[in-house]
Amino acid sequence: MKTTTYYTHQETISGFICPICGYTECNDEFTCTDYFVSGENFDIVSCSGCGLRVTRHRLSEDALGAYYQSENYISHSNTRKGAINSIYHAARRLMLKKKRNWVEKQTAANDKKLLDVGCGTGYFAASMQKRGWNVVGVEKSDSDRKFAIEIKLEVVPSLKEIGGNNRFDTITLWHVLEHLGDLNHAMQSFNRLLTPQGTLFIAVPNHTSADAEKYGTHWAAYDVPRHLWHFAPTQMLQLAEKHGFRVAATRPFHLDGFYISILSEKYKGSSMYFIKGFFSGLNTWFSTLANTEKSSSLLYVLKKMPE
Description:
Blueprint: E1 12-13, E2 26-33, E3 41-47, E4 53-55, E5 58-59, H1 61-64, H2 74-77, H3 83-105, E6 113-117, H4 123-130, E7 134-138, H5 142-150, E8 154-156, E9 168-174, H6 183-193, E10 194-205, H7 210-215, E11 229-230, H8 233-242, E12 245-252, H9 254-268, H10 273-290, E13 297-304
């Protein structure tokens, strides 16, 4: 008999202050279910000022840790069990080369110092190190950090561990920003740690995407309560400018639409969810060809503004 573990969110962070525009008023949007771990419901609200969507009942950092403790949470377990997890790993392998190309196109030949924030078990960081980059990773998870260190990566538990004189030519966050509790502190740190000509790469889910519009509360990329913030392109532009960055380019993550659509169909309880999700992902792909902002996830390439 399977034992079910129930989680409570009695220990919450109350009140609402938008990290982008500072508004203290918000509008109720809808409720999403944590399909990965607990089965609990979490409300999503939107800022009345800028429209940023926020997971309302934010757990404390200690309480939130329990919601990552699942083999289903692939970025932390690296499990390959099941068709969806196999798809994730196949897509990750395909995206690795594309990520490397994006980064190296924006970097001078001799400037190869990279900070990978939320590096997990070090999949991307290790690939860059093999290409001659001087790489430092940041990873909060003790088990993931231990694994990354065992494969000869330099990994620290937080940005606080990086010395004040360190500067990086490139900083990357691959689906990490939406997990960070203090957006403003993080963005300030990135500006401080980046060289004047450096590049900040931030990839996040996009709730104005074609698949988000289709699936609504079942859209897998809401991923409550692990995702605290839910961005649209307008809010990413505002956040960047607030902290001295300009958006130099945006890039779609085409493969995310397939993975997220398949998972969303599963959450809906659809029969043949794999096939339905595949065709939904294909529709998102075609929508993205006409409008990049319809992509399930977007990469924002940020450059520092002149002081």
